[in-house]
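Appendix B. Worked example

We walk through a single record from start to finish. Start with the input: the chain for cellulase, Phtheirospermum japonicum, length 88.
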Amino acid sequence: MAILHDYGDTLLKSILFFEGQRSGRLPSTQCLTWRKDSALSDGFDKGVDLTGGYYDASVNVKFNFPMAFSTTMLVWGVLEYGKTKGPI
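Next comes the structure step. The output line below is what the pipeline stores for this chain.
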């Protein structure tokens, strides 16, 4: 018995997850309407602008390299195997 996977739905939910992890000033096109701008004054007391980036593991620490790796792997998977999985 073949198991069918909805790769389009998986990709959509993955992108939505990453969108929910954004930090800083959010764009007006933000799909998660309950999310608002966050951490806009990070680094202010030290004269450093630390706004933007992504949160990791539900904490208030931003890890850019793990997020960059995860995003790269998602995109690489679409580029490498997108045609074999059908339309998204």
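Two observations about the output. Residues 44 and 75 are 34 Å apart (CA to CA). Residues 25-82 form one domain.
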